Amino acid sequence: MIGVDWGTTSFRAFRVGRDGSIRDRRASPRGILAVPDGRFGDTLREEIGPWLALGEDKVLLSGMIGSRQGWKEAPYLPCPAGPADIAGALVDIGFDWAKVKLVPGLSGVDETGVAEVMRGEEAQVVGVPALLRDGGLACLPGTHSKWVRVAGGRITGFTTHMTGEMFSVLRGHTILARMMRDGPSDGAPFDAGLARSAEPGGLLHHLFGIRALTLANRLPETDAPAYLSGLLIGHEVRAALARHPGSVVQVIGAPELTALYARVITACGGYAERHDGEAAAHGLALIAGHADWG
Amino acid sequence: MIGVDWGTTSFRAFRVGRDGSIRDRRASPRGILAVPDGRFGDTLREEIGPWLALGEDKVLLSGMIGSRQGWKEAPYLPCPAGPADIAGALVDIGFDWAKVKLVPGLSGVDETGVAEVMRGEEAQVVGVPALLRDGGLACLPGTHSKWVRVAGGRITGFTTHMTGEMFSVLRGHTILARMMRDGPSDGAPFDAGLARSAEPGGLLHHLFGIRALTLANRLPETDAPAYLSGLLIGHEVRAALARHPGSVVQVIGAPELTALYARVITACGGYAERHDGEAAAHGLALIAGHADWG
């Protein structure tokens, strides 16, 4: 089968064998925002045409491609939902040259009962065998980080944090922007921001401290972005782990980001295991195996 | 004497009698950013000239006018500092038509020992008699809210929160901007945001909830700004009061803002007394009374 994680700004496709192994992969910047005039079919054929020529005819798409801004809207499936539930709610794309289906996003609630939605992360989460087998907590860092709860082989709920977007907007549009120049994202300044997140005073105060530290020449401008990153991720992880002390967290995403999060999770008393974005390929293959392809 | 609270974007002047009563007042948008080519002297004379003609010759300026971007830099005075200490650190403006002096800003530390600075708020704080007499906590809400600790007639330290700036940047530059239209700043949505700030999950998660609530049609776009305001002020006040449970807080500022903060302080278990911006006039007169005018 062919699995595609098709998001707002990126397109990642995998050719997966019957044994679940990834036989080939492609990545391009042709996210849904980069596809003109709704030409999703043509784009998909251009990207994976050579695999279709090899006889693959089942294509499963996850991510924002199934949103109102995408190819066709796949309504959110309510939690709890596991691979078989998701497979039963796939949405067909009427198309001639292959069987193409969309994975629905999931709707659920956070730990206080407030509504949440996700689209794309569900395929990655079910692609981590330990989560389906043992249950537990997954973290998918990014613009809008997701913390996903899994029990009994199904996703039961999740919580979103605006961490990545907050970093961008603070870096670009506040008084702190003037205090910062690009520098390494890791290292001692990251750890200093992380340590600060454990102190009292609250995030709104800790953020202003970046100005005070740079004015006092105690934080070089090129170190300030890493400090801000450690501070924000520290606040996110502390809040997310508050109800799950000592948890093992399955962190899924790009290696540079999962490395930062793993460090913070460990510092906050949890245990982290890292997975790269290929979890999506495994999850899509698993869902495809439960689906009715007609 | 004449007291002037001269900030980045506003100019407010007071003519204060020997008995401390305010005899006249002026306000204009001629903050330091609106004064071209460093013509601070001309601007001041245009604003308060009629009072000088009445025989006033002592002029005390506080706020960003004493910063590097202002008329002349008045170095920060370290805390603890009271009216007499501040009066002993005034900086003269060499000028022919009146005795003009600058109030220094204060430097201090927050409750975890991290450096902080303020410029302008010190004059307002010492203008509240209850604070000098009994000590306690002052809150000056705004772009960068200050929480100021007073003991033994002197300012001992303070803590800044980026609340107002965070509101602007979230309102203008994030995914939440699309979820909001201008509406009333107070009322039930404000209270809903305030209540949310008491729940677990952390600010970075609570902010994203605005998207979920509007998508679920549970928060009208015109109510979202008030909800965001209640959420942010709730997080600020909860963090600021954490070490001062049950405190009386002297809230100083524009009436619409002090009303919101007083409501939040009460909801968080504190007690609020409100003061308008004329505290600056009383503080400047008090400092002037301790000063050596030659």
UniProtKB/TrEMBL annotation, chains A, B:
Gene3D superfamilies: 2-keto-3-deoxy-galactonokinase, C-terminal domain, 2-keto-3-deoxy-galactonokinase, substrate binding domain. Keywords: Kinase, Transferase. GO terms for molecular function: 2-dehydro-3-deoxygalactonokinase activity. Pfam families: DGOK. The keyword Nucleus does not apply. GO terms for biological process: D-galactonate catabolic process. It comes from the Bacteria. This is 2-keto-3-deoxy-galactonokinase. It comes from Rhodopila globiformis (Rhodopseudomonas globiformis).
